[in-house]
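notes to self, project folder thing:

trying the whole complex as one job this time. last attempt i did each chain seperately and stitching them together was a nightmare. two parts in total, labels are on each line so i dont mix them up again. if this works i'll redo the older ones the same way
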Amino acid sequence: MATKHAILVGVGGQGAILTAKVLVGGLMKAGYDVKMSEVHGMSQRGGSVSTQVHWGEKVYSPIIGKGAADILVAFEKMEAVRYADFLKPDGVAVINDFAQDSATTAAGLAEYPEGCLEAMEGAFRCYTLNAAKIAGELGNSKCMNIVLFGAMTHALGMDEIDWEAVIRETVPPKFLELNLKAYRAGRAAAEK
Amino acid sequence: MDKHLLSGNEAIARGAYEAGVRVCSAYPGTPSTEIFENLPQYKDALYCEWAPNEKVAVEVAYGAAIGGARSLCAMKHVGLNVAADPLFTAAYNGVNRGFVIVTADDPSMHSSQNEQDNRYYARSAKVALIEPSDSQECIDFMKEAYRISERFDMPVLFRTTTNISHSKSLCTFSEREEAEPFVYERNQRKFNCAPANAYRNHPKVEANLKALEEYGETCPINKVEYRGGKIGVITASISYQIAKDVFPEDTSFLKLGLTYPLPMGLIREFASKVETLYVIEELEGFMEDQIKAAGIPCIGKEKVSRLYELNPERLREMLFGVKPQVKALPVKAVPRPPVLCPGCPHRGFFYTMSKGKNFVIGGDIGCYTLGGAAPLGAMDTCVCMGGGFSVAMGLSKAFAATGQQKKVFGVVGDSTFFHSGMTGAAEILYNKGAVIPVVLDNHITGMTGHQDNPGSGYTLQGEIAAAIKIEDVLHAFGYENVIIVDPQDLTAMQKAVDDALASEVPAAIICRRPCLLIKRIPHDIGLCEVDREKCIGCKKCLKVGCPAVMIRDGKSSIDPGQCVGCTVCAQVCPVGAITRKESK
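result (full assembly):
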């Protein structure tokens, strides 16, 4: 098979890197060669973050450039727009319908752009869900990343991988029930 | 065998452990930091430490290699500029046990001030250069690096780039190998670089390099993958992985792990077997220039940019003119730059500086570099670690010489003060500078992700250590008026600045408040709220540059998810519309 490429993007602290680790766990179990790259220079300070995951029989480059990703998972909708040019023209996007001000928009130095979701939906096959709201309804906004992960696994269509088993192995027992619910809710939202 | 997903940095730590390394010293710097953060797990087998700076780290590790222990040192690319002095002479003296220096370069400058290519250091210092291309090679090549260091009696430079250090790939582990024991005896002829010894050592360096070059012709980390005679690619490091994705399947590769000295015989033979030869490397044409100088025609920097990181899509476009297919969107994202965190102790200092008239501020490298960004914008220069004090000194001398009325401040952090700020503090006092040195003491090395330093009270191995007091150092130098202030109290902060400027004796300021992200210190977390009735929408609170403070429907609004209740915004509100709830 040709190597597949995923890019997970968001804002520092949203859990994009952790989600990528769960994804990688499943891909490793399925026997793929896997590489993952983290761009996290100054990202802890509220900047934009991106993580790439690549899998196949043999993966060479741990990074891709523009127009190469099969799937984009955006934890924040303006970040989806920022990284949209990494997607192949026939690529799939999973987008959290959630806006977080940047330092520039909060300070009134720039306007948060209108129409991020519509622009993405006009250009790509998109799965859009309000993962923040779903996580809130489950009682803990921190599981937003696993809600998105659930939607992502549906978009990937790799049903041969037992993702729930991967979550069981990755998440601390205390948070297991919550994360399993989050995963299922995210998957259900994407299936709609 | 069990597969482990490791970053290059984690793999280097593992490789050092497996290679039988005993002593490790480093100063943190992105993208190298995680190498040493991953060493304490092996502390039963090795000693590891954070040194005050990279020069000290190289000297400590080198001393250990003389003393009979395999040793490791690591730093970011610009760190090697600081440590260049001992490197060049260690190359003349040689080693008793293996000595490896990791330089982690940062093409594209994800968190650096330049994208210098440190491969030139190996050529200039006349030491071996080893470059891994994935995490498994980070482990395997570390072991080869120690063998080369001992066999050819030289330090080895082990170079990664961000995409080697921070990318994860699958690895298998081996058992730790213990190095042959070494019994130390004084050997001044070898290790005392007095001119007469250095004179004798230089020809030895040349002979060792020559022998290493011959070894490179057959060494196990230089490999030919022959797939056909049409196209050949000579490459190394991350460029190998990228080129494998870009060139057709029938392309032959000469993949080098030992990249200085180059195995010119092997290269010549490979070149003779292919019709078209490419040399693919990120940043400079380090290999290409040497290959062309040897009279071997090849294609390289005519096509491949010297700027920024490569990736398969960039390389394909540069080599073959294939543009990536990208869909244009009708919407554009606005910048999301990194900012000082909510509750960051640096905010109060930089806000106070932003109000000053005719203030000139020499800045430095750390989280506080973000004090230069809008809306605070309170920094004039940022050059290098420790440059905050000394560049400010030069500015003040220029202003005096040219009759410009300015008030000059030099700013460094606590870790930077111990790194190389102390010498600048001595310079200001000794040469009567009109500069107020300011140390932003948040008790940690912040930007690189919280490493301990000589002022923090802990070591890398988690032991309690003597915390050196910055005020004691400044007092000892002769700063008679050291003002210690909580920068989050804006009134006190302003008074500290006014008092320092008015001081008749040499004055310095220490802004002291721990970083809120330090887990071992209890923090007083609260929450600020806006009374929308009182708020007049003047936007003064936006001037503190806090990501938790924003304008909603014309009035101030505070994001409860981000706010920690530091009250800096409340202190600048002219109508008292922002108040703090005691606990979150």
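what i see at first glance: The first helix of chain A runs from residue 16 to 29.
need to look closer tmrw
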